[in-house]
Write a structure and sequence with these properties.
Layout (H helix, E strand, L loop, with lengths): L1 H19 L23 E4 L2 E4 L8 H4 L13 H16 L10 E3 L5 E3 H4 L24 E3 L7 H6 L4 E9 L11 E11 L1 H5 L26 H23 L4 E9 L2 E11 L2 E11 L1 H6 L6 E8 H9 L12 H4 L22 E8 L7 H12 L3 E11 L6 E9 L8 H19 L3 E3 L3 E2 L50 E2 L17
Length: 519
């Protein structure tokens, strides 16, 4: 069995060597970073029926492009759809207009492709703000991108004359790899504006109060707002959100407000809830910057806005341990949320407790034009949702050449039948080869040795989708041997830090190696 597995490793490495030399599928060396999905720079990318020219800002990956248009929040009985419908139900029932119709309109099918002006400038985000960085966003080109937040639509909807609306949609951010982060997630945004009459109605001597004044900005208000108007808007906002969270989680919920900063609101707050004895941040909110409201043509109004991550709330509400599960098409996951009533209590039942496999990889970094998210995108492109977590475990800088070296621990799992240790090693060999091709850097790959005398653990519910528990990386670390070698590299050029042992088991005949996307 071990001999068979080692032969398969040799075959995979041989195929990778042929491809690296340009024989396999005509691949050429490309710059470091996510490979432009449809073609090289200077070409165009087709997305949602439109063409966008690519330039040196383009950094979309095939992995991310494959998620555009999935719209999980609009798939009936998906957990994100259930949560969206519960929020809509609350706002429709509690806030109505004069004719009894819902006060808030809902927009959940707006295109995720926006201009950089919509995503940043319309929200008063400075040109040098770190949130604009190419390393944190997905750009189609220098002028268009996949929205990083649903707030990108605020200005357009205000300009259209709306003063109370909800926006729900998928948003895209380059981020780390762990159970709480994914390059695509979903946000729900809400905005409400008040006229002077609406805000002060029912307030004693309200006819003598004003929305605006010219004063100085403080920690409690903007320079153009009166203190009375700011406090009433803040009170309405916090009351609205408290009632929403009570509707979702039930009575007796402990809530606290934390002061924070957003470029498009002031004062700004984060809402935290005490869930199972732990304080968890669930949303950001605040009084809208009057400059933003004025530029959209609503100079006579003042308002609030909030935005929450649907996955964050759904993971708490349904006890879902890993954000990747929301993208699962596994029937064992989806059937748990097929309920008759959207308010019905659902507690996610783990699909498996199969252990994760942890491998280490070390590589020299380019001195320029590299961000940590470049590596995360590479891993996601090749490994897909097989990869559960990537941790930076060590750094090293060559004392002579000042070349930085980085070591990462990568937790993998096997959610498909036949995805054995040999499959995961093949994936990791592919990842190593791709990184070398892109950057022409030296790359050390940890050795996976057969564990003699051990048997593979069989899951009791077919093959698992995700492990329920991920052991800490440090639990299996092996001390570095040798002197004078950078972390993750021992004598002979093979990575040794954090060395892992695993059982190599043959996949079932005819089963394709999972996760080798784009290899």
């Amino acid at each position: 069995m071990v001999c068979w597995a080692l032969r398969r490793v040799g075959q995979v490495r041989a195929r990778l060597a042929r491809r690296d030399s340009g024989v396999c599928r005509g691949h050429e060396h490309q710059p470091l970073g996510p490979r432009p999905a449809p073609g090289a720079w200077g070409s165009t990318v087709e997305l949602l029926g439109k063409s966008y020219p690519q330039d040196d800002y383009s950094n979309l990956t095939r992995k991310v492009l494959s998620k555009v248009g999935r719209n999980l929040h609009n798939q009936p009985l998906h957990p994100l759809w259930l949560l969206k419908e519960r929020v809509k139900q609350h706002f429709y029932a509690r806030y109505t207009g004069r004719a009894g119709t819902p006060l808030f309109s809902v927009y959940d099918d707006l295109s995720p492709v926006v201009t950089t002006w919509q995503n940043f400038d319309s929200l008063l985000i400075p040109a040098d703000h770190p949130s604009r960085k190419k390393g944190d966003n997905y750009y189609l080109n220098a002028t268009h991108m996949l929205r990083a937040h649903t707030s990108a639509h605020q200005w357009d909807l205000l300009r259209a004359g709306l003063d109370a609306f909800l926006v729900v949609g998928d948003v895209y951010r380059r981020d780390q790899i762990d159970a709480q982060h994914y390059p695509v997630f979903h946000q729900l945004e809400a905005v409400r504006l008040f006229s002077r009459h609406q805000l002060f109605a029912g307030i004693k001597d309200g006819e003598n109060l004003q929305l605006f004044e010219q004063s100085s900005r403080s920690a409690h208000k903007q320079e153009t707002h009166t203190l009375e108007a700011t406090k009433l808007v803040e009170f309405d906002l916090k009351q609205t959100l408290t009632q929403l969270m009570t509707h979702i989680f039930g009575d007796g919920l402990d809530i606290r407000w934390v002061d924070c900063y957003f470029p498009f609101t002031h004062p700004s707050f984060e809402m935290e809830i005490n869930f199972h004895g732990e304080w968890l941040e669930v949303l950001g909110c605040g009084v809208m910057e009057q400059q933003l409201v004025n530029s959209a043509g609503a100079q006579d109004r003042i308002g609030w806005a909030f935005g929450l991550g649907l996955e964050r709330v759904a993971m708490i509400l349904y006890d879902i341990p890993d954000i990747r599960l929301f993208w699962s098409e596994d029937e064992r996951f989806l059937k748990q949320f097929r309920v008759q009533d959207i308010n019905q209590k659902v507690t996610f039942q783990p699909l498996s407790k199969y252990p994760a496999v942890i491998n280490d990889i070390s590589f020299w970094l380019p001195r320029e034009n590299y961000t940590e998210n470049d590596f995360y995108d590479l891993v996601r492109t090749i490994g897909g949702d097989l990869v559960e977590k990537v941790d930076l475990i060590d750094k090293f800088e060559h004392p002579k050449h000042l070349d930085p070296l980085s070591s990462h621990a990568v937790a993998q799992l096997r959610p498909q039948p036949g995805a054995s240790g040999i499959c995961l090693l093949s994936m990791w060999t592919c990842c190593s080869g791709r990184f070398v091709r892109w950057s022409r850097i030296r790359c050390g790959l940890s050795c996976l040795e057969p564990l003699s005398g051990a048997r593979g653990v069989q899951d009791t519910q077919d093959q698992p989708l995700l492990p329920h528990h991920l052991p800490p990386h440090g639990a299996h670390a092996v001390a570095e041997r040798g002197r004078g070698h950078p972390p993750g590299r021992a004598g002979g050029g093979r990575a040794a830090a954090g060395r892992r042992r695993q059982v190599l088991r043959a996949p079932s005949p005819g089963v394709a190696l999972p996760g080798l996307q784009g290899c």
